[in-house]
Design a protein that fits this description.
This protein is α+β, with helices and mostly antiparallel strands. The protein has 11 helices and 9 strands. The chain has helices spanning about 1-10, 15-20, 35-40, 45-65, 65-90, 90-115, 155-170, 235-240, 245-265, 275-280, 315-320; strands at about 120-130, 135-145, 185-195, 200-210, 215-225, 230-235, 285-290, 290-295, 310-315.
Amino acid sequence: MRLFLATSFAVALTTATAAQAQSGPSFDCAKASNVVERAVCKDADLAKADRELASLYTALLGRLTGPAKESLEKNQVSWIVSRNRSCGASEPDMTTYCLKKRYEERIADLKASGTGTYPFVEAQTIEKKGKVGKVSYSIDILYPRFAGKTADFSAVNKVYADNAAKAARETTPTSDPGVDRPQEWSAMGSYALYRPGPDAITVALDFWSYTGGAHGYGAITCKLVDLRSGKAVAPEAVFAPGDQWLKELVILTAADLKKQFVENPGFDDALKPASLTKLLREGSHYCWQAGKLQLYFNPYEVGPYAAGAYTVDIPYARLRPHLRAGGPVAF
């Protein structure tokens, strides 16, 4: 493990020019010696993602100094460990999916970390496996911790830690569940970072669990964190005073969802102004990104489980009259 980590970490330091010049990943596939490396070498999309990640990491590392540089190096090693543990232990047909998701999230993190104030976001993990009666369970949850010293992030960090611990408890049988055939319970969590402004970070938590029943349930929830105050920011603090912004969002969201419902039917009642107004008062739907607001609706919120999630992307140009001047979102 130590040798592989050292090799992988050295790979991440490959220069952007050298990485992009290759058609494969940023490392020599002739020397691939484990499940993760071989999977990356076999998949063109993963190889491309590996090159992009190496390029972003090297460029960012070269711009940072002191504690920020040390934090980035530490986070990269942690990411490699987590990637190998989670994706390397996956079923063969799930390894590629797992890796694509991990690379997508890490690339988003590096892009977000390279704009404005370095956010000092460190990955924390809860990993656990066991068996109670006929139920085998596995827990692999990543959640963020803001480690910067410029503000007090304790309240935000407590919410993330408490929610992760709660999810782990709910996936761990405390006694024999009494099921009549073997079951596999699981909880998986990860996150991605987005940068809507130089002094703010959006954390998009992606969580999925199964604890019996017809199917599991997954959800993505977003939180905007102001790096200057260390506090979570509600939508009301991003928009100008009043409720005109909410009325505009209801109109834009209803129009977009109505188009999506043609190909992927949802709940007609969800398009009613009162229903959307209630949903859009919940800050977890607001995934503030660079240049746009993405509204994320999980299964059952505006459509049936089989329809999956719905997203509505709104460029900041459409929202400019309603965004608060000097707020955390750059427009």
